[in-house]
Amino acid sequence: MSSALPFDALTLSIDGTNLIEASAGTGKTYGIAALFTRLIVLEKKDIEKILVVTFTKAATAELKTRLRARLDEVLQALESVEDTDNLSDDLAAYCRDNHPGDVFLTGLLKQALAQESRGRLIVRLKAAIGQFDNAAIYTIHGFCQRILRDYAFLCRAPMDVE
Hints:
Layout: H1 28-41, E1 51-54, H2 57-80, H3 87-98, H4 103-115, H5 118-130, E2 136-139, H6 140-150, H7 152-155
Parallel strand pairs: 1-2
């Protein structure tokens, strides 16, 4: 039997498979939004290459709102400070004042700025936000229907599957 490790979106391995098990109200949506943001900001994935699947239409709508808001928060933080010698300190102060207790945002920004310039990050985030309508965020049944519709010929399925 393996022991459960605490969830940390910044250090969780994204290679292979991870099982995240949680009860209602424990922050699953927060965690998914954090992982999604990490994939865009740190892993430099295209928004169209990330698949997010959940159970209900209401959960899907909530996820879309939260994922977009998370990207907006990162962009707003980067745009709120000047590109100075104290960039890291200025961002930490911004996060402390505007997002108290959000250790993910502070850690994400610190790691991102170690990888690339503030200007480049802003450009990539604006591009991701501009492409957000192309994000693959579905219910499980909606995703399956889309696959059957888009790949009906390849799957040898009827073209009008419902």
